[in-house]
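Input.
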Amino acid sequence: MKTTLLATAATLLATTAMADVTIGNPMAMTGPIPDLNAPIAAAVDLAAANINEQGGMFAGGEALVIERADSACDPTAAVDAVTKLINVSGVSAIVGPVCSGATIAQAESVSIPAGVITLSVSASSPAITNMEDGTDLVFRAAASDAYQGVALAELAMANGYTEMAVSYANDDYNAAIAEVFAQAYEGMGGTVTANEAHEPNKASYRSEVATIGATSDNLALFSYYGSGGITLMRNALETGAFTNFIGADGMLSDELIEQIGAENLANATFTTSASDDSTPSFGAWKAIADAAGVPAGDPFVANGYDATFMMALAIEAAGSGDREGLAEHLRAISSAPGEVILPGQWAEAKAILAAGGEINYEGAAGNQDFDENGDVAGNFSKSTIVDGAWAAELIE
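Output.
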């Protein structure tokens, strides 16, 4: 099947005049995580630049165009943004959004009904796996929090935290990973002393902190830093409610250091999806990123590059910017068999596809083989404060 698809694409490339290809890119440019979003968006743009510099799309060298819209890490904003991208801009595919709630909302309301494929750069809620849309139209380039929540529970136990309070923001991402964490942690013998939701964007969380702080010295905090996470953590430190903190990537930001102070974060550890920097694919990516001034190791930045590069490869393999059937090509270009393609190797991949050959993209963020749900496996890192800044270490 894979060989047949690629051979068909090669024939189309040789005989059909093409237009520029436009990919929709809803990103969280405003909202609770703009600092986390900015380098991911830069990686998306870098992938497009690499592709256009190396011959562009199809035999005619048509341009790959990134049409960006602000999904604001918000379900309603994401639905509006993707509606415009699909119905007004006429994009071939969606790369993004960043946040889980935004990804779920736009997929259910807009992209799935329109028959448009979505490849999220970082949405990690386990609920995405269980959407069961039956259409093979929702993929993601970052691992599910079904895995990260377990990794975080293992980290808590390794740190000697045998009992913990849990506080999570009442949204799709944070509620889902908190649930995974709590179940895994208790399964490992840990005791959850309190497990409470908090509403985002409150001016103060002193009452919430006082309630759960009476149950433990250790807090598992699941929140976006810009929509309550920093405030809740500040209130916890001001009142001395907690000594130790762990959490996931929604809190991993330099703004947390700026607002709280590195000296007050000595007992804080946050996890995130990560790349194995010992692999040839990461080495190729880092060289490209360093040359462009893009932070190669920042959370989900490599995933943003991978998602864009893979979607372009899928469209190239399909032979046109038509929306229909892209899922088959996305699966084909990202898995064996085929000649291994690393980040930045667009010209090589394009030549192989044009000749009817097979490719296997090995991503900057790691293996990008999609399972039946459109999910990928992944690595995770833990970040702690070292010399006043976040320092990441891959979790083995």
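The first strand starts at residue 21 and ends at 27.
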